[in-house]
Amino acid sequence: MALTAVSGRWTTLLLRELMGGPRSFTELRSLFPELSPKVLSERLRALRERGLVTVERRRGFPVRTRYDLTEAGRALRPLLVELYATGERLLRLNRPGLRDEQPPGQRVRR
Predict the structure, then answer these.
(1) Is the pTM of this model over 0.90?
(2) Where are the alpha helices (DSSP H) in the chain?
(3) Using CA atoms, how far apart are residues 77 and 91, in angstroms rounded to an integer?
């Protein structure tokens, strides 16, 4: 269930940014310039449907939209931390001949 909640390209990155507090659509767009507005909207909608994000629309012109994590969304923090840590470990494991304490570019003697 937890992995399903964070599935989808860009989802974990959006959750990571929202862990720091509420963000507007414009702020999220500026943080991910390579992400199209359409895909960003789709990902935010999916997170809302999964009960992980709330949406607040503020009156005015233009209408301001603010996204924030629900309690369920904030509960994903330990999972996200572990996913990122595991990703880092996998990157190191997939670099044959390098050890953690050595600067990149130096080979290990066998």
Answers:
(1) no
(2) 2-5, 11-19, 25-31, 37-49, 71-74, 77-93
(3) 21
The answer to whether the CB of 15 falls within 8 A of the CB of 69 is yes
Mean pLDDT, the chain cut into blocks of 10 residues (110 residues total): 67 92 94 93 94 90 89 92 87 72 42
Residue 5's CB is within 10 A of a number of other CB atoms, namely: 19
Predicted local distance difference test score (pLDDT) of residue 89: 87
109: which 2 tokens? Answer: 């003697």
The SS3 of residue 77 is helix
Burial 67-92 (b: 16+ CB within 10 A, else e): bebeeebeebeeebeebeeeeeeeee
Question: What single-letter amino acid sits at 84?
Answer: Y
Per-residue pLDDT at 63: 78
pLDDT (0 to 100) of residue 1? 59
On whether the CB atoms of residues 63 and 55 are closer than 8 A, the answer is no
d(CA 25, CA 65): 6
